[in-house]
Amino acid sequence: MSSHCADGARAAGRRLLVGLVLALMLPLPACDREERRFSEAPPSGAPSNVVRMSTLQPGPAMMTSRTSNRYDENAYAVSQGQRLYAWYNCAGCHANGGGGMGPPLMDAEWIYGSEPGQIFATIMQGRPNGMPSWAGRIPSSQAWQIVAYVRSMAALTPASARNSRADHMMTWPESQIMMEPKHPVQSFTPPAAVQP
Amino acid sequence: MTTHAPAAAVDDPQDARREAEELALLERTWAPARGIRGWLTTTDHKAIARRYVVTTFVFFVLAGLNAVLMRLQLSRPEMTLIGPDRYNQLFTVHGTAMMFLFAVPVMQAMAIYLVPLMVGARNISFPRLNAFGYWMFLIGGVLLFTSLYVNTGPDAGWFSYVPLSGPEYSAGKRTDVWAQTVTFTEVAGLVAAVELLVTILKTRAPGMTLARIPLYVWSILVTSLMIVFAFPAVAMASTMMLAMDRLVATHFFNQAEGGDPLLWQHLFWFFGHPEVYIMFIPGLGFVSSIVETFSRRKVFGYPVMVASLLVTGFVAFGLWVHHMFATPIPQLGRSFFTAASVLIAVPTGVQIFCWIATIWSGRPKLTTAMLFAIGFIVVFTIGGLSGVMIASVPFDLQVHDTFFIVAHFHYVILGGVVFPFFGAVYLWFPKITGRLLSERLGRWHVGLFFAGTNVAFFPMHLLGLDGMPRRIYTYLPETGWGNLNLLVTLGATIIVASVAVFIVNVLVSLRHGVRAGEDPWAAATLEWATPSPPPSYNFRHVPVCESRAPLWSEDGVPAAALPVMTGLDAHKRQILVTTVLDALPDNRHKHPEDTPWPFWMAASLGVTFIGAIFSPWFYVWGAGLATLAFAKWAWPTGKYAEDLVMPKRGPR
Amino acid sequence: MRRRLSAVRRQLSALLLSLPACRGALDQSVLESAGPRARAVESLWWFALVVAAVVYVATVGALAWAVVGARRRVARGELGPPANEHRRMTLAVAGGTAATVAILFTFFFYDLSVGRTLRPPHERAHTLVQVTGHQWWWEVEYPHAVPSNAVSDANELHIPTGRPVLIEVTSRDVIHSLWIPNLGGKKDLIPRYTDTIWFQADRPGIYRSQCAEFCGLQHAKMALHVVAHEPGEYETWLQQARMPARAPTDTLAARGQEIFLSGSCALCHTIVGTPAGSRVGPDLTHLASRRTIAAGTLPNTRGNLAAWILDPQRIKPGANMPSNALSPADLEALLAYLQSLK
Amino acid sequence: MSRPRLPVGDVGHLPTHAFHNRDMMWWGTVSFIAIEGFTLVLTATVYVYLRKNFSTWPPEGIARPDLVAPSVLVALMLASLPLMRMIDRASRAHDLMRVRHLLTVATVVSLAFNLLRIWELTQSLNVRWDTNAYGSAQWLVLGAHGTLLLMQYVETLGMTLIFWRGPVEKKHFSDASDVAGYWFFIVLSWLPLYLLCFWGPRWF
Asked: Beta-carbon neighbour count of residue A159 at 10 Å?
């Protein structure tokens, strides 16, 4: 074999090796996303109880408390949050994110903040004008799952941990419509029982 | 062609030097490059088939280990060895791998090795496509098992029923991995089917008319035709529908927006039922070859055998609804599907009778391969009979989705795929490696495998009748299923032992096996008319086929000489193309050179489909990459140009 | 013929059931039919089994005979094929094929006749029950013209013996499947589809049933107990089930009710007669009268109930009931209340 | 054991390429046409199956698809068929210059097909794939056939480049003839799908 060929073989070998290593690394981030934790303590960090209604503050700048929610990156927690969102009738006021009596949750506007800790506090403490307090009702681990789901609706969590849709009718936030239909889309009701 | 010209045999001693020169020339023309470059670029069907078979077998072992873990968990009631999350991944990957990564591909891989040799061709019809198919398959399989090992294994069952596998109830990327594994394997399966189809139709040895095609090759022809019509259904349903529902929120299966979960079941089983026949029809072909070789006579009832294969292949498409008897579908349709499901037993029965008749009138030698063929009849018949039972709607409704079904399809698949596969390995191992497998270890292998299969799967019938549903990760002690489950687990360990014996036999025989020579069994078909292992060009001269058993002058008696045709240019890669029906020589096709681009094409599609688990944009980028790879693949190099019309233009 | 067949059946049945594990403590078997539907299928099964056994023995016997005969012939030094081989083989294969076709036709028509007996009893007098599948429990409803008389129950299906029961099935989430081996039949529960299945129990008893379509993490622990009562007893049960929950009689139970209503329990469960009315989890109005908890997973005892409330994820990992961190005193009170819900 | 070989004929005089069913590549193309054609049949089946879940088609609130661009595409497709006949004939006549120029025209036409398909998806359908099952079905059929259009473009472009840059062997003429055959499949398979997707919402 000429040295040229040997070089080629070595180069191909290197390429193959690099490709293999990359391929093996690809699924590593999966660990967090795919884990299914059935019973465990909720994410650490005290929820920020303080809701700041003004940007003005005395003295030197205060650290905003940023609680991270490890459920944000966990697909199972987000999907459990989605289930609980329906079960606890969050949709009664917020619809499937589009809003109704309560504010929409799919957009980027947050009255009481979009950090996990803030949403957690909003759920647990309640807010004026209709948001009830769920403290003592919803176990905190479930509340954190709901937080993850609510944030996923606003695309604040990693896309890989969100699902594309639920098995119900679609709701569209303005910002997510990539292509405007020429005619308004109305909902459709399938026959209740399709066949005997 | 029927009257031999009184020409001198080419093998005369004075021609030895000329022969050596010609062989060296052929070797230079056809041999793949050495080292890893050769590994990536080769388009030799034998090299690709060898690694294909080994790869599928590795997946078989891995999927089998999944089964062992499952059996340990089920061996006693309320075991806590494996939790439900893990267990669901294990059984889903077990089923998916056995179906998509073993049963079908191993049969195609064997066919890729054997068919060109059996029809007397120099290589497979589309060798680059062949290489591409292998790489696609490899990526799909590695994707599935890597995912399992990083806790992303699919967990919705191998038939991924929506809505459980849909975006709402299958969180994360697990089902997407399943859908793309299916994409990879279906692409690989489809291209292999096309190559084999065209190889059989267009590159048969002169004289191999339709009525002289070996039964094994017929079985591959039927299987490949079935794949062409069955695989698109699942490829479309998983890649274009399920994956899209999960990725870009289409509504094929969302009832609230007009979709329908039963649509998935129809599409899946339209593929899934023929799949069963796609798996075991090649097995029937193996059995025909084994019975013919070791009974020392041609299989009795050739036209009936061929007709049976064709009928089976056709009727197999009319059975899919019998997987859906418990769903809301019209009553009348069910009777039709029952009738079809019952009727399909006839052609298979006919074939079994013909083999028995062949053995009866022949001079059977009970080699390991023959024992596997006999084991096939003994085991597979049980699966066939329980298959007739569950064609009945009322009975099916009692055992559907229970361990009775698990028992039934394991009898069918182990009986119809694994037994013939092992038999085929014992038959053709000497051809592939040049050495015989040990018959002594072979007896242990066949004995343990037979015992293990029955101990593991027969009790499952009883468990199913006793109410045990499939796919449960545990059960209560009060159900009383514990002892039989323990027995099943014991059977599983026996199977493990037998497969271990087989692996040892292969490894030992590769080094120390008895040298085989060209034709150790004095067999009948053309693959035995070339050295073992065959040279890269398969045959020095194109063999000519004058009967169904071209190497026999009469039943079991080796012919004195082999008629051949000369005239293929040894300087170039040429293969002889013949006519479809009568196999008359028609033209000399220019055969492509080795190239790494099928590999890069598969790699770019790998990036595309794996990336598309996460973002639809990978379809756009990946299509660009794949187009570049394909351009390099298809671009003529001008090497060995034949009848050049216009030379390559220099740089302007 | 018929009698002989049933004698064979009895013997085979005894043989099969004498195998060590075929007899569980629970009634959950295709081979112990307790109603006409399952019985029809059971006789079809025994017929098919006997025929299959005969066919199997004949096939494998022929194979063995062929191998042994041929090898003897070779040992005797006869190198040629047997006399008249072609005619004999043709006859054998044709005969075998004809027998196969005949047997299959017989089976097919027997199957059709069994299929006819399975027609639903829409016209006949029957009891109507609605079963809805959930991940991972069964909601069972007994509708009534007067809505307040309708009964909602979970994981237990009470039926009268001797009359057909028509079950309307559907699912709330993924596909489940209702299968009661001793009574016969199977029906997939598909979301947004409503389908029906019927059966009839001839003798009182408790028949166990398990979800038969893979439905996710706890598919294994999704059992339904079918309780067949004598008709009079059934009416009594129904009357009892229509009653709202008893008000707590002692202070401990009253404290338990308070915990139930003010904590997370009431968010998912209904107790008729109290403000708790959520339909997300099983109806608990008569929890204490049920035989099992957690969809047939545990016997309904005080200890099991406590374990289930505190940490359901240990018993049924992935179930949708959350863990509840209750103080021992609160747990005591809650258990007292729940156990009073007869 | 090696048995002697007995030459009974010579194939050295046989041609090195052939057209249509004598050619091996042609059979490969036909096989892929079978696979792709059956996939299209399945997409149409899905379309009809989903139709039965709706009382009106398109569902209320969604406009019927526009007809202009789709009809232009169909007209262009039909008009391109004679061009393909010409390519096939020129190939069989081994007319290098003629095949080269006709292929160049075909590349442009194929590009126009693809642009029109993009226009159809974005402007004529009036529905997104994720609006409801009606939208998904429309996108499925158009998308599946659109993938084939894209492949056809790549194939035609590649063949054209080969005929310009070389090396061109005689066998490339049978490849060019296969391009024409595949083109017929693309066009003829679209006609029923066109009626289904664009006239279907008007008829049923």
From this structure: 10
